[in-house]
């Protein structure tokens, strides 16, 4: 196998993916956060503001993309969402390529991609880790977020692959429903499986 190993990290909303990504980073694994890159590209002075404003007039301002306005423009409109993705996805892919080039000497890199399965990002990774917690814990976490409603939560879930299917397709399942230390142990175990033997 060639190095670095590209480990894709994914999981449904509220499963603790960001927490797990931080645990990998704490162990020295370079992390590419697709969501963070989107925020950077759409933030104040972001490279995509002009294209997004042209496609969705009124969706940007001095602070970057008005996420509420953009959300209204694409919600329940597949054509509009596809138009937005055609702007965002190539830019994120370029950033990911630059990240991989900059970390080509690392044994393992983590690609944190929320919709890894839904948007076929799984084709671009070597192994997949899915974070998973029991449904009641997931629901409680998500509904505790500001502005979240049960209806919106259900709408988001409907656009994501079911947790059970993600777990079935994963190389590793990282449990996030218990103590943080248990999750840290699981993260370390995944890394131990992936790191090349000394001397290679």
Structure description:
The structure is a single chain. The protein is of the alpha/beta class. It folds into two domains: 5-30 and 103-200, Rossmann fold; 34-90, no CATH class. Helix content is 50%, strand content 14%. The protein has helices at residues 17-26, 34-42, 49-55, 67-74, 78-102, 135-143, 150-158, 163-169, 180-194; strands spanning 5-10, 31-33, 60-61, 64-65, 108-112, 127-132, 172-175. The strands form two sheets. A five-stranded parallel β-sheet has the order 2-5-1-6-7, with helices on both faces. A two-stranded antiparallel sheet has the order 3-4. It is globular. It starts with a strand and ends in a 6-residue tail after the last helix. The mean pLDDT is 91.
Q: Which helices and strands appear, and what pairs or packs with what?
A:
Layout: E1 5-10, H1 17-26, E2 31-33, H2 34-42, H3 49-55, E3 60-61, E4 64-65, H4 67-74, H5 78-102, E5 108-112, E6 127-132, H6 135-143, H7 150-158, H8 163-169, E7 172-175, H9 180-194
Parallel strand pairs: 1-5, 1-6, 2-5, 6-7
Antiparallel strand pairs: 3-4
Output mean pLDDT.
91
Q: How are helices and strands ordered from N to C? A: EHEHHEEHHEEHHHEH
CATH superfamily of the largest domain: P-loop containing nucleotide triphosphate hydrolases
Radius of gyration: 18 Å
DSSP strand (E) fraction?
A: 5-15%
The CATH class of the largest domain: Alpha Beta
Query: What count of domains describes the coordinates?
Result: 2
Number of helices: 9
Task: Let me know the number of strands.
Answer: 7
Name the CATH architecture of the largest domain: 3-Layer(aba) Sandwich
Distance between the termini: 11 Å
Strand order of the largest sheet: 2-5-1-6-7
Outline, from the CA principal axes?
globular
Q: Unreliable segments (pLDDT under 50, ≥5 consecutive)?
A: none
Report helical residue fraction. 40-55%
CATH topology of the largest domain: Rossmann fold
Which class of secondary structure composition applies to the elements?
Answer: alpha/beta
Q: Summarize the main sheet.
A: 5 strands, parallel
